[in-house]
Amino acid sequence: xxxxxxxxxxxxxxxxxxxxxxxxxxxxxxxxxxxxxxxxxxxxxxxxxxxxxxxxxxxxxxxxxxxxxxxxxxxxxxxxxxxxxxxxxxxxxxxxxxxxxxxxxxxxxxxxxxxxxxxxxxxxxxxxxxxxxxxxxxxxxxxxxxxxxxxxxxxxxxxxxxxxxxxxxxxxxxxxxxxxxxxxxxxxxxxxxxxxxxxxxxxxxxxxxxxxxxxxxxxxxxxxxxxxxxxxxxxxxxxxxxxxxxxxxxxxxxxxxxxxxxxxxxxxxxxxxxxxxxxxxxxxxxxxxxxxxxxxxxxxxxxx
Length: 304
Description:
Helix content: 25-40%
Structural class: mainly alpha
Mean pLDDT: 88
Low-confidence stretches: none
């Protein structure tokens, strides 16, 4: 996954832990030297930073014999260097936002087209609730690539009137991410012949679906491991609260209009829930930073 928060090793994790400095160093030089030996003498250049780390991550996963690799695209999907995997087990597209417009295009539809580039023939794909037009673009991309695309039900559907699923990550936007994660995990488990997690129905092409361009995937009862996983997930630097004496720091990585709106909702809620010091003195700090061609004024306006 990218980017990293403190050190580059966070981008390549095994069982949730960044690989050790020793392993990182070993595989870095192994990949670097192999590329150095075999590069074209005319156009002699190394892959760019993200591409190099992607090649290295694949090499680490193969050498360390992982059972399952979860790979997040860098930017977009269609032309992203992670997109060389020909037959993934399953693909997921989370909530779309306007970002990297100089590369991906300046509308949600253009961005949806890029994201749909990860779909593969015969490989199931899932997405969450999206605006109507971008969702139609994803549907068309899925048909064009002969891939079955499903919409994730809301997280409430997985609770089935039982206890509420607790999430380790704050913010309402994480509920759709959690629903997507459950569907991806379920698909992997079914591939491993685990039963009783709700079967996907193939919808024949051209079927009119009750006002929805994409069929709804069935909800199922999450396993104990899934419930624990959702509850214990942590992602440092995302909706993180750090109380330090009289100062409370609120950290997040939001950098698009929709994610900053989600950040504002979270900040309001988190700030309300904090216990106030008895003498009324409290400093809350929300640090904002943005790079590249992003519209700083629009993002700051939402924070104001």
